[in-house]
Amino acid sequence: YVFQGTKCLYTDIKEYIRISSALNSGRSVRDLQRKELETYFQVPKDLVKVGPVLLLAALPFANYVILPVIYLFPRRFLSSHFWTLQQKVDFAVISQKKKLYYYRPVFRQLQAKVHNIDDLASRNKCQDIFYKLGSGLHPTIDEILEVKPLFVDKPYGIFSITNRHLHSLCRMHGISTLPGKQWRLWRHAGFIREMDLAIHREGIEAMSQHELRHA
User: Fold this and answer.
1) Neighbours of 56 (CB within 10 A)
2) What is the spatial distance between Cα 11 and Cα 21, in angstroms, rounded to a whole number?
């Protein structure tokens, strides 16, 4: 898996360079296919994670220390290129459980600000949605879209929420909580939107079961 993983990572790096060159030459993000979007978004993260390990492993005699460590902690020190199929499933479950831990804090932050909504009709709509969510029910798409303006500006806009709310949102989406959280969340939201549009363009039937689960 080390050899195969390195080969797959190298292939993705070459693809990332090709996509970046195309975008720099004027190609639109909307022209990218779903798999190209995934590669463009994920490769920099993989390099930050795997790069130091590969560099250390190249040092003389470092393999005797590095290899046992990465085999013991593959989720922490290796990208998905180096994981077995079972590890991909197991690590996805672990990641999802970590995200779920922050759902309640994010929801509490939303509830705490509902009284800051000046327009009474919008406040009532938002409260109805929160009541449904708190009761384990799903609001309709139309109900969510009616309160969309509240998430563009105050009180729920990404540049209006509290630092605590930002922290929980970043943890929920697996994003660094270092300074610059708003812009990282903004970029992540943009990626999710472009992925949704790409899935809509290409059709769900074009996706494998593993890709559907990941999406």
Assistant:
1) 15
2) 16
